[in-house]
Amino acid sequence: MAYQLIEFDGVPLPLGNPEQDHTGTPVETALLDSIGGAFDYSGAARKRGRRQTISLSGVYDGETTYWVDEAGNRLVDEDGNYLIIGLGPNMLRNQVAALTEKRGVRGALVRKRFDDDVREQKTARLLAIGWRQTGQAGHLIAEVECTFETLDDAWRLETAATATASPTAGVLTALNPDNGGEATILDAVLTVECTSGTITQLDIDANVGIDLVWTGSLATGETLTMDCGAQTVQVDGVDSYSGFALGSGHTVAGWLLLEPGLTPLTVLCAGGAADVTITYYPKFF
């Protein structure tokens, strides 16, 4: 098993005797019936998954937990008795309760890669929790089953990657985000902080069908933010979408589409200089 689901919304998942579904997000059919046949409405474009149900089962163990020092030695009271944090049944109930409190919650479902311990996540909702109590050890062992749903097509790294450039007025400057993941990134965030002058136009271009244009007034110290996932444009938190446009050379779906590998972009600022940053999360299937 290359991955293990380990956490949901900050709560540890049951990892004892685990059974986990790591099937990727399914893709719905792109074939539509027509008179005398059918056609593929997605054409040659890669079709993304739309929704997924993720299930897992595992065991929580309840065991007596002791206070320890930095070296792992158990602490004792004045009579030499070990100091106890919690007894087994109480520790078991707390573990299960922490997860059942998340039923219906939308949060980060986290998996860990075994080869390098890198954490990846999807935004998911906990739909159901099954808790089976069997045998004489029911007060110390809980067999738990969980069902989640998600709209995310791929797992994203918890740590963002960035690419930066510092164009001066009128000078075409390279900006080269490197997508080290397996999936196309559609939700990158572009920020442009004006460092001198007043920027009146910003052009972001690439030979892969990206052509973004913003016109307006970005004074020194102000920051323009383009959220390509939410498709919002703001200057210091104030809507500035009216100045945004897709240029004549824009052909990709969405705004700033980053395929796996390097995407060579160019940035051109008119009227001022800037620090430009693209922030994105590499994604894996």
**Strand elements, count:** 24
Distance between the termini: 14 Å
Structural class: mainly beta
**What is the strand content?**
over 45%
Major sheet attributes: 9 strands, antiparallel
Number of helices: 1
The rounded Rg comes to 25 Å
Overall pLDDT: 89
Low-confidence sequence ranges: none
Shape: globular
Helix content: under 10%
The SSE order reads: EEEEEEEEHEEEEEEEEEEEEEEEE
Q: Would you mind describing this structure in some detail?
A:
- The chain is mostly beta strands.
- It has 2 domains: 3-27 and 46-154; 161-284, Jelly Rolls (Sandwich), CATH 2.60.120.
- The protein has 1 helix and 24 strands.
- The strands form 5 sheets. Strands 1, 2, 3, 6, 9, 10, 11, 12 and 24 form a 9-stranded antiparallel β-sheet that branches. Strands 13, 14, 16, 17, 18, 19, 20, 21 and 23 form a 9-stranded antiparallel β-sheet that branches.
- A hairpin with an 8-residue loop joins strand 10 (119-132) and strand 11.
- The two termini are 14 Å apart.
- The mean pLDDT is 89.
Keywords, please?
single chain, 285 residues, mainly beta, 9-stranded antiparallel sheet
SSE map:
Elements: E1 3-8, E2 11-12, E3 16-20, E4 31-34, E5 37-40, E6 52-61, E7 65-66, E8 84-86, H1 88-100, E9 106-113, E10 119-132, E11 141-150, E12 155-157, E13 161-165, E14 173-175, E15 178-179, E16 189-206, E17 210-219, E18 223-227, E19 232-235, E20 238-239, E21 244-246, E22 261-262, E23 265-280, E24 283-284
Antiparallel strand pairs: 1-2, 1-9, 3-6, 4-5, 6-11, 7-8, 9-10, 10-11, 10-12, 12-24, 13-23, 14-23, 15-22, 16-17, 16-18, 16-23, 17-21, 18-19, 19-20
